[in-house]
Amino acid sequence: MDYYYSLISPPCQSAILLAKKLGITLNLKKTNVHDPVERDALTKLNPQHTIPTLVDNGHVVWESYAIVLYLVETYAKDDTLYPKDPKVRSVVNQRLFFDIGTLYKRIIDVIHLVMKKEQPSDEQMEKLKGALDLLEQFVTERAYAAADHLTVADICLLGTVTALNWLKHDLEPFPHIRAWLERVRAEMPDYEEFSKQVADDTLAYVASRK
Ligand SMILES: N[C@@H](CCC(=O)N[C@@H](CS)C(=O)NCC(=O)O)C(=O)O
């Protein structure tokens, strides 16, 4: 399976972490969407030219959560990571949609401003805090984001919350998120090595923009 990605992109991280958890191998194709040649090649597969993009035996999937759900539904040996019970699954789905539509959106909006050396408004920072308050509530009610065990919601939210590193955002006011982060990281195979690679690629990217 070819996986077009960049480690510094939070949406690209989820499927890599999930693949390790599932014990499957992705053929990693590091992609720079700002390079016209690489972008043209990607556009031939995915007209939206976004990373991540997955190609499994000719079948093309993009949108990170669509990729995560495709992988878990195709390759997981049981339904632990994406429970089949409709009520449990609805909570997992709610967390995923909350992430992509609210939490990640509010974080990335602020990151984009900071990268342009612009100051986010108080309202934007308040909205970001509001989304983190909700996550804090979710992981106070349960040990994991959507169930009493690890699911794909935790794996996707992990990349989102880790993106706060770009903002050097203080998680001190969110003790349950911090405890949840530790719990989830401990269940990700080779997480330390993965996290180091993300940090290295991020530093290289930041240096290349100076
Ligand atoms: N909602 C999408 C977002 C993907 C996305 O915007 N990726 C960025 C990199 S973080 C990208 O490929 N941008 C290039 C472009 O939009 O042309 C997902 O979760 O996969």
TrEMBL record:
Gene3D superfamilies per UniProt? 1.20.1050.10, Glutaredoxin (3.40.30.10)
Pfam families found in the cross-reference section: GST_C, GST_N_3
State the gene name recorded for this protein: gst1-6
Identify the keywords attached in UniProt to this record, alphabetized: Transferase
Domain GST N-terminal positions: 1-79
Q: Which Gene Ontology molecular-function terms are recorded?
A: glutathione transferase activity
Q: Which family does it belong to?
A: Belongs to the GST superfamily. Theta family.
What is the protein name for this chain? glutathione transferase
In this chain the GST C-terminal domain maps to: 85-202
Q: What does UniProt give as the signal peptide span?
A: none
Any keyword Transcription?
no
Q: Which InterPro entries match?
A: Glutathione-S-Trfase_C-like (IPR010987), Glutathione-S-Trfase_C_sf (IPR036282), Glutathione_S-Trfase (IPR040079), Glutathione_S-Trfase_N (IPR004045), GST_C (IPR004046), Thioredoxin-like_sf (IPR036249)
Q: Which GO terms describe its biological process?
A: glutathione metabolic process
Q: Which reaction does it catalyse?
A: RX + glutathione = an S-substituted glutathione + a halide anion + H(+)
**What does the annotation say about its assembly with partners?**
Homodimer.
The protein's Enzyme Commission number = 2.5.1.18
